[in-house]
Amino acid sequence: MISDLKIIEIFCKIDDFMLENNQVVAQSGISTDKITKSRIRKFTMSDSEVMTIMILFHLKSYRNLKDFYKTYVCKNMQDYFPKRVSYNRFVELQKRLVQPLAVYLKLYGLGKCTGISFIDSTTLKVCHIKREKQHQVFDGIAEKTFGTMGWYYGFKLHLISNDKGKIIDFLITKANVDDRQPLKDKTFHDKVFGKIYGNKGYLGKDLFDKLFIDGIHLVTKMRKNMKKKWRL
After folding, report:
1. Alpha helix locations (H) across 38-118?
2. How do residues 143-190 score in pLDDT, each as one tens digit?
3. What is the pLDDT of residue 48?
4. 74 to each of 54, 78, 82, 84, 90, how far by Cα in Å?
5. What pTM was estimated for this model as a whole?
6. Where in the sequence of the chain do the CATH 3.30.420 domains occur?
7. Where are the extended beta strands (E) located within the chain?
8. Total Cβ atoms within 10 A of residue 212
9. Which domain of life is it from (predicted)?
């Protein structure tokens, strides 16, 4: 159960972050006024409110955002969010906050390494593989590759978590990037120490030696055709 003070604390931290983030965006000259100059809508719910609800969703036991918003937020959190919008409108608003939410997570939302970590990757599909030639949003950025679920077009999300399930760090790469490549960059594993567990996709003597020098013991399953001297 999330207490009232905890909800207020989360909102205040996010609101302070959004004020600073908006100042940085304004100073950098990033603006969409040229695109939307014919129609600039003022949103009923603030970005801070939308981000707070998105974070609360992951802190609660709900597995479906629609159910969480309609049955919990709209009925039990009326005092916190008096200017609630419809669910369809909320989905539209949250799409605008992917970038600031990722920055907030990087700065304030990551967990700490406990000496036991886990690493894995998952697919981020931007469209159906049959429509890759017609896709324009990520044209020239997204890539096609073959994974355990077949061919897909998009990106790959790499995650490192501790034994308590908290994210230590994350990285988004093109889909055709090898799973081992991010771990070779010290900036991605500089928060990790002790043992890190991964699947067979992270096998590699060069990677094992590099991580071992940095104080990290990579643990994976072995392939059947590997010699016993490689077993960890």
Report:
1. 47-59, 65-67, 74-76, 87-95, 98-104
2. 999 877 789 999 999 999 999 989 999 999 999 999 999 999 988 999
3. 93
4. 14, 6, 9, 7, 12
5. 0.75
6. 112-230
7. 116-127, 143-147, 150-162, 167-174, 194-197, 216-219
8. 11
9. Bacteria
